[in-house]
Each structure stands twice: as structure tokens, then as C-alpha cells.
Write a structure and sequence with these properties.
Chain lengths: 306, 533
């Protein structure tokens, strides 16, 4: 197990390095720069700015500078929000996005798996139909449609919940965004669980359990353990995506997470900000895939490492 | 044995939509009796047993009655049925690999049966599970109980399944082809174990099998099923010695040892392997990859125009050797063919020789491309080896070859999934012989087929050998088959050839202990339940 973790972390280094190098290059290839504006700056000021941000150096040297500070945990100064470093921006925004993401995943797992089991165990009848309808709805209706509908229903008409804003994470402000984020995930998790659970219930070893007259709940528990494997595989990339914030949800509900930095940073050619989001998403993907692999080994003894 | 009936099947019928799987099945099992239910695949044996235990999918319609101690099991509600199945009536399935849950230790799976069946506490159930593992002849039961199914061998897994089945001291044990997935020597041990447990626990035993010879060794009564109906029933001696129904006679003829082929004159070697070795690198510790020798220092001669039988248990390296001989597997050593060493040849230099050396694989379901028509599959080799042929000429050759293997011309446009197992294997044979090879490696070509079909395919292979002077390397674990086809036999164990000689000599007067064990486990003498496990 320890060997798996070490090997994975070791192999993550070249992966992340390649991701950083590629996005670094792509950003520089994009036309325009961080200091282009409607009204051109005084060339002297521009040159000064470029020197301060090391943009006057040749590309390899810029990359070297960037890597060096990255290794020291410094994501660099933001060129767009010039009074802030990227570290400052993320220190405020990332915890908010992570909190939303964790809550959404937890909700998606609990509701999705429950629905999936229901749909697989009572495969004929209203329960299975309800699961199918709900998961199709969750997949088909985009969140930028769901979110305003929820705002209108619970915020404006019923007046139960605030329409938007964060209010330092007051619980009532979290409900609608988490619900919106979780809905498509619930649909996917429910479908994955349902399909896997159906296959698991048809497996010969489940027939063995029935042949031995074991109670239904025990049989379903056996089947569920096998059925969770595909859900686990999905969870790695899904978690990385959710925890790094959703631009749509954060914009609609006015939440100061890091989702908006994705777009703002790219549009204003804020090199360091874009690079930082890439690095963080990359690292999250690596970490979550590793976690999934470890969990896989715990659930399935056949892939246990060593 | 008393005359006291314990399980009575009365006019049991099972339908899957329009398909009649079991038809009007009636027979009685007495207390302490061993009954064998025999028939080929699809004859409805297993379906009948699954119906009795309420294990069929909802798509099945079940009619008739199965009385257990006077209570009808058909249509019984689940709670009542669960008090009987797994406790009073238990079942052991064919495939021990898939019948056990891969995600739980074998100890916990046995313990679960004890906890729910006998209402034992957690600790008592775990302790009893270890005892049961000991009971079914598993060594180091404490350690094995902590193992997952994939960490055990096939024979050990089947023992675990049997331990689950005897956990609640059942009155009836149903064993559904309990030895079919196992090697001959292991199968014999499992059969002995079942016979032994039966007498110790005083159970009645229903043994489902396609092999009349095998079950005849421990059964009291035999019931023969064909196409869902019972065609013959009676005491084992009567059914095996004076079979009345032609189907029983066919099963017996197919299952019995046939006379060995008449001895043939020694033939010059066609292909010779010298010190052949194949090894694989196992994923092991860092920097220290472990090597596993699948084939180790093998010297082998294939006589021209004759059949060399290669026997041994699964995992002994037979198939790897067969593939290595036609250079489908990287190997060390020498393969001498036509004065050349095949090992030294490059892939390009090898290509023209490939038409001489063909192979037919065991599984006719996976060895044919599902997306090509039969004609395209058979003619494919011609595209490479006779590129000058026109499409029409290729088609003609394919049609002619199909005719030779006994398939009607209309099959040329069909897809593999439209064919039966036997027909597919004929296609695979046609694909090999269309190139007019000199050697055909036959890797268990009949193992996936029913006995009757097996006999037809063997006859076809014989006919082709006589007509074209083919040499065969016939790989099989089935001694009855090898006796019928081989001129010489080589016995393989753990990657080495342990014995080689004329067929009759190897089978009737084996020199090596391993060969003697193989031959003994395939014989049809009754099993003595008191013999050592």
C-alpha cells in the first residue's frame, strides 16, 4: 500500500510538470498580454511592469522563475488584481469552493446511491420509474436552468431561502448552490449504482446466497459492495472537478469561490492566476485518483496492492 | 438405504417463454440415496434443480410439484423457502470461481450461512467455519478462512462451496456438475469427498453431470435426461450395463474408454523441439522481476503424418508449448523444421512457413471474429499466402473447404454467433486446413463441446488427417479423447515433459507416478468412500 502511494506520488511529478509546462506555453501563445488595454500604456511604464513581472526575460527563464517560486509554494503575483498575490486570492476563495464541493459530493453519494439501489432492487414498478425519470432530468437539464428555477421557487416565491450571496457561509446560503451542484451528480451516481447493482444481483455468487436462504438485506449488502466499484472510479475525476469550483453556480449565486478565476484569469491574460488554477486542478486530479485507487483496494481484495 | 422418500419431483415443468426447458419430470429421491441426473448441456438438469429451490429468474414459468418431506416447494413463499434452502436442501454449483463472492473471505461466507441458518453468534460461526474447512479436507483451515476466493485453487474453492453446503447439516445435497470445472485428479478427490461426506452426514445426494461414466462411480440411481424429459431411470448397474434408451447408449459410448488406435509404424520427425523454454516475467518486487518458467527444457518430436497427444492438467504449460511450437510465443531453445531453426527466424522469414503450421484453439466462441462472415474467416489466410488468387477463386476454395469439414455451402455468408459450438469448431478447422498445412496444433479442440459433438469433430479430424497426411499435436486433458486419437503421447507437468511414448504404452503401462495418477483419476472404477482423501 505504502509502495503504491509512493509510486503514484513519484509518477505524479512528471505528470504535473508536463501539465504546467504545456499550459505555460499555451498561455504565452495566446494573443495579447496581461497589460494590454483599450488605452495603451506609456511604453516606459509598460517596460517597467514587464520587468517587475519578469515578462521581459526569454521564455525558458520565465518558466524557470515560475517553477522556482512554485516549488516554494508561491503561486506568484496576480497581474489582474494587482494588489493581491494569487496565494491571497486562493486562500480566501478555495476553501469556499471546496466546502461547496464536499457538500455536493456527499449529497450526491447519499442520494444517488440510495436511488440507485432502490431502482435496482425494485426493478419493476414505480420506484424504478421514478429513479429513471429523476436521473434523466438531472442529466438533461443544465444547471444554468435549474439554478434560476430554484431561485425563483425558494427565494422569490416561497421566500424560504436567500436568492444568492455567501454571507460568510451561513447554512441557508449554501442550500440552493449545493443542491444545484449536486443534481447532475446525483443523476450520474444513481445511474451508475443502478446499472452496477443490477449486474451484481445477477451474478452467480448472489445466486449462491439466495440458494442458502440468506435474508434479502444481507444479499443486497453483498451486491452493493461489488456495485460500488464503478461509482468509486467515477468519483476521482468528479471530486476534482467539483472541489475546484463551478463557474456557473458560483456566478449565478454570487459566491466568491475560485470558479470565477478560471474565466476572469483567462480573459485578462492573468498568466499566474491561470497557471495556479491549472496546477491546483491537476494536483487534485492526481490526489483523488490516488485516493480512489486506495479505496478500490480496500473494497476489492483482488486488486489489493503488494 | 431406506425406502423413505425425502424429495419427490412430480410432473415438474419449466418454460422460458416458448422454450420448454423441463418437461414432465418425475422421480423420487430416498433418504441416504445418491441419485445422478445425467444429460448433455441444455437437457434441463440444472434448471430442474434451480426450479425446486426457487432460484430461476422471473422469466421462467414453473409447473408441477416438488415435495420435500411432504411440503411442496414450488410456489412456496420466500420466508418458508428460506427455512429450507441452505439448511435442509443445499446446493454446490459448477463454477466455484463465480459461485463465491470475490469481495469477502471464504471464512466469512461460510460463517454467514451459519449465522443465519443456525443462528450462531459471530464468534461461534467463525470457529465453526474453520472446523468445516477442516472437515472438507482443507489444510491449515485457520489461515485459509482468512483467504479470498481468488487466493485459492479451483479444487480448494469447490471444497469451500461444499463446506458452505454441509454447514447446516442438510438432508439433501445437490451437486450441480461439481467437478466439471476441475482437473481430473482434483475432480476425483472432490467426488471422493462428496461420497465420504454423504455417508458421514447421512445426506441424500443428487449429482448432476454430463458424464455418465463419472457419476456411475458413486451413484445408486441414475436418471437420464434428454431435451428436458426423463428418458431412462434405474439402478446404476442396470443403466450403465444394460441401457435401454439409445440416448443413454450414446452417452455411455461417448463416455467410455475406447480401444486405443492400432499401433502405427514409427514415422520420420516433422518438427522437433530441443530444450525449448518459455518464461514470463511476473510483476513482482521492485528491481527484482520474478521469472516464471511456463515451459522448461522441453524436447519433443512430432512424427510426420501422425498424432502426438499432449496431456497434463491445467496450468502445466500444454497450451503455451503448443503456441511456442508454431512461434506464437517467444521461446528459447531450438525448433527444427525443414532443416531450419524456427526460433532464429525473423517474423518476415517465418511468414511463408506459417501456412505449414496452423493452430485450432479451444474456445470456438472467442477464437472467431464476431464481425466476419464464415467465408471471410476461412479465406483470410489465402489473402496473405496466395495473394494471386482472385476473390472468386478464394470464395471457391473457402466453399470447398467448408464442404470438406462438413458444413453446407450456405454457411459461407453466416456470422459466427449464428452457429453452434460444434459448427464453429468446424469453421476453425476449415480456417486451418485451407492453407494445406503440414502440422496443425489442436489446443483442446473438443473440450468446449458436448460428448456427441465431440465424437463427430474427432471423426472429422481423423478423416482430414488420412486425406491430407496431416500431423497433429493434440493438446487435451481428456484421456478418453487422447486414447482415441493419439499415436504417441507426451505427458506434461509443471512445464516439463515427464513421460513420452507410444499411446498404448503410456496409458496402459505408465512409468511415471504422475501419469499413473492421471490415468487412475480418469478410470471408471467405483470410488471407495473410505479411501483416503
Amino acid at each position: 500500500m505504502l509502495r503504491l502511494i509512493l509510486t503514484r506520488l513519484a509518477s505524479a511529478i512528471p505528470t504535473l510538470l508536463a501539465v504546467v509546462a504545456l499550459s505555460f506555453l499555451l498561455m504565452r501563445l495566446a494573443p495579447g498580454g496581461p497589460f494590454d488595454a483599450e488605452r495603451a500604456l506609456d511604453p516606459k511604464i509598460l517596460a517597467n511592469l514587464r520587468r517587475i513581472y519578469h515578462l521581459d526575460l526569454p521564455l525558458p527563464a520565465q518558466f524557470g522563475y515560475y517553477l522556482w517560486s512554485l516549488l516554494h509554494g508561491d503561486l506568484g503575483p496576480s497581474t489582474h488584481w494587482r494588489d493581491f498575490s494569487v496565494n491571497d486570492l486562493f486562500a480566501k476563495a478555495l476553501p469556499i469552493s471546496v466546502q461547496l464541493g464536499v457538500e455536493a459530493i456527499a449529497l450526491a453519494l447519499v442520494v444517488g446511491i440510495t436511488l440507485g439501489i432502490t431502482g435496482a432492487v425494485w426493478r419493476r414498478g414505480p420506484a424504478a420509474f421514478g429513479v429513471a425519470a429523476l436521473s434523466t432530468f438531472g442529466l438533461a437539464v443544465p444547471i444554468f436552468v435549474v439554478a434560476p428555477l430554484l431561485q425563483v421557487a425558494f427565494g422569490l416565491t416561497l421566500r424560504w431561502l436567500p436568492v444568492g450571496g455567501w454571507a460568510d457561509g451561513a447554512p441557508s446560503h449554501q442550500i440552493l448552490p449545493v443542491l444545484t451542484l449536486a443534481l447532475p451528480q446525483i443523476a450520474i451516481v444513481a445511474r451508475l449504482t443502478q446499472a452496477a447493482m443490477r449486474d451484481a444481483l445477477a451474478a452467480p455468487h448472489i445466486r449462491t446466497l439466495r440458494a442458502f436462504g440468506l435474508p434479502a438485506w444481507h444479499i443486497n449488502a453483498h451486491a452493493l459492495r461489488g456495485a460500488l466499484l464503478p461509482v468509486l472510479s467515477y468519483l476521482g475525476p468528479a471530486a476534482a472537478a467539483l472541489l475546484t469550483g463551478s463557474i456557473v453556480v458560483e456566478t449565478i449565486f454570487g459566491i466568491p469561490g475560485i470558479g470565477r478565476y478560471f474565466v476572469d484569469g483567462a480573459l485578462s491574460r492573468d498568466y499566474t492566476l491561470v497557471m495556479a488554477t491549472v496546477v491546483i486542478v491537476g494536483a487534485m486530479v492526481v490526489v483523488f485518483n490516488l485516493l480512489v485507487d486506495i479505496a478500490y483496494g480496500l473494497v476489492d481484495p483482488r486488486v489489493r496492492y503488494d | 438405504m431406506t425406502e423413505d422418500p425425502i424429495l419427490r419431483f412430480e410432473n415438474l415443468g419449466v418454460r422460458f417463454g416458448p422454450v420448454d426447458a423441463v418437461h414432465d419430470l418425475s422421480f423420487t429421491l430416498r433418504r441416504g440415496e445418491t441419485a445422478a441426473l445425467v444429460g448433455e448441456s441444455g437437457s434441463g438438469k440444472s434448471v430442474a434443480m434451480l426450479a425446486a429451490l426457487g432460484l430461476l429468474p422471473p422469466s421462467a414459468t414453473v409447473a408441477g410439484h416438488v415435495f420435500f418431506n411432504g411440503q411442496n416447494l414450488i410456489g412456496l413463499e420466500r420466508e418458508k423457502l428460506d427455512r429450507i434452502r441452505g439448511k435442509a436442501i443445499t446446493i454446490v454449483f459448477q463454477e466455484p470461481q463465480s459461485a463465491l463472492d470475490p469481495l469477502f473471505t471464504v471464512g466469512s461466507q461460510i460463517a454467514a450461512v451459519l449465522r443465519f441458518g443456525l443462528k450462531l453468534g459471530r464468534r461461534a460461526a467463525a470457529a465453526r467455519a474453520v472446523e468445516l474447512l477442516h472437515e472438507v479436507g482443507i489444510l491449515e483451515p485457520h489461515r485459509r478462512a482468512q483467504n479470498y476466493p481468488h487466493e485459492l485453487s479451483g479444487g480448494q474453492r469447490q471444497r469451500v462451496a461444499i463446506a458452505m453446503a454441509i454447514a447446516c447439516d442438510p438432508q439433501v445435497l445437490i451437486a450441480d456438475e461439481p467437478t466439471t470445472a476441475l482437473d481430473a485428479t482434483v475432480a476425483a478427490k472432490i467426488l471422493v469427498l462428496l461420497a465420504d461426506l454423504k455417508s458421514r452426514f447421512g445426506m441424500a445426494l443428487i449429482l448432476i453431470s454430463h458424464d455418465l461414466g463419472l457419476v456411475g462411480r458413486i451413484a445408486d440411481h441414475v436418471h437420464v435426461m434428454q431435451k428436458g424429459a426423463l428418458v431412462e431411470s434405474g439402478p446404476v448397474a442396470q443403466v450403465t450395463q444394460q441401457p435401454r434408451h439409445p440416448y443413454t447408449r450414446m452417452l455411455l459410448a461417448a463416455g467410455l474408454d475406447r480401444a486405443a488406435r492400432p499401433a502405427t509404424a514409427p514415422a520420420p520427425p516433422l518438427l522437433e523441439a530441443r530444450d525449448l523454454g518459455v518464461s514470463y516475467t511476473l510483476r513482482g518486487a521492485w528491481f527484482r522481476p520474478r521469472r516464471f518458467a511456463a515451459v522448461d527444457g522441453v524436447c519433443l518430436t512430432i512424427p510426420a503424418g501422425q498424432t502426438l497427444g499432449l496431456i497434463g492438467e491445467s496450468g502445466s504449460g500444454k497450451s503455451t508449448l503448443g503456441r511456442a511450437l508454431v512461434k506464437l510465443e517467444p521461446a528459447r531453445g531450438q525448433i527444427l523444421y525443414d532443416g531450419r531453426n524456427l526460433i532464429a527466424l525473423s517474423q518476415d522469414a517465418m511468414r511463408p512457413l506459417r501456412r505449414d503450421l496452423q493452430i485450432v484453439f479451444q474456445d470456438p466462441f472467442s477464437s472467431l471474429s464476431p464481425r466476419l462472415t464464415v467465408g471471410a474467416i476461412v479465406a483470410e489466410g489465402l489473402r496473405i499466402h496466395e495473394p494471386a488468387l482472385s476473390a472468386t477463386a478464394r470464395r471457391d476454395r473457402a466453399a470447398k473447404t467448408l464442404d470438406e469439414v462438413g458444413l453446407p455451402g450456405a454457411f459461407i455468408g453466416r456470422l459466427p454467433h449464428e452457429l453452434s459450438g460444434g459448427q464453429r469448431q468446424r469453421v476453425a478447422i476449415a480456417r486451418a486446413i485451407i492453407l494445406q498445412p503440414r502440422l496443425v496444433v489442436l489446443d483442446e479442440p473438443t473440450s468446449a463441446l458436448d460428448r456427441a459433438v465431440q465424437a463427430e469433430v474427432l471423426a472429422l479430424l481423423q478423416k482430414l488427417q488420412d486425406a491430407h497426411g496431416l500431423s497433429y499435436l493434440f493438446i487435451t486433458h481428456d484421456l478418453a479423447v487422447v486414447r482415441a486419437v493419439a499415436d504417441r503421447i507426451a505427458v506434461m507437468q509443471d512445464g516439463r515433459i515427464v513421460e513420452e511414448g507410444l499411446a498404448a504404452q503410456v496409458l496402459d503401462a505408465p512409468r511415471e507416478a504422475y501419469t499413473r495418477e492421471l490415468v487412475a483419476s480418469a478410470s471408471f472404477e467405483p470410488v471407495n468412500p473410505n479411501s483416503v482423501l
